[in-house]
Amino acid sequence: MYELQFRFKDLGGFSCIRRCISEYIRQVLPEEGCMMDVAVNEAVNNAINNGRRSGEKFITLKMRIMNGNKLIIRVKDEGPGFAARRTVETFSKQGSRLFDKGLLDESGRGIKIMLTVADSILYNRIGNEVMIIKRVPAAIFPYIPTTMRREQKMRG
Fold it and tell me: Domain boundaries in the chain?
């Protein structure tokens, strides 16, 4: 299984690799790639704006396909983190009213966008790494025979 990994320090560094990331996402998710691209940009913006407050630190972005049917994207900063689980739980409880409040606020939309686009998002305990999970259409991986997909599911 292949994993793409990028490390950068700021928006300038991210802009150098952004096209590569966008193309990969849009190949893997042809119908929803644009929105997933927005979700990834929000995760990166959060890492840049919140994770680097205490000096020059790196942001790591990793992407891989797991079991041939899930796109896993991880964005991690080296900052102190935040109470991510509480925030995600609060937003998740809002359901269809997720964007009723705060749509024009300066901050707080990124996690809401990620929750809307992804099948799930998870934060580590510290709150400085987000994992975005999205199911991938089976048609994207015609080189993986159906029997192998079943075997991978059984093992996974």
Answer: 3-155
Site of tokens 């599911």 = 153
Please give the full DSSP string across 65-115, using - where no structure is assigned: EETTTEEEEEEEESS----HHHHHHHHHHTGGGTTTS-TTSSSSHHHHHHH
Summarize pLDDT for 119-140 with one digit per residue, the tens: 999 999 998 999 999 999 875 5
Residue 13's SS3 state is helix
Q: How many CB atoms lie within 10 A of CB 36?
A: 21
Contacts of 22 (CB under 8 A, 6+ apart): 33, 37
Model's pTM, two decimal places? 0.78
CATH topology of domain 3-155: Heat Shock Protein 90 (3.30.565)
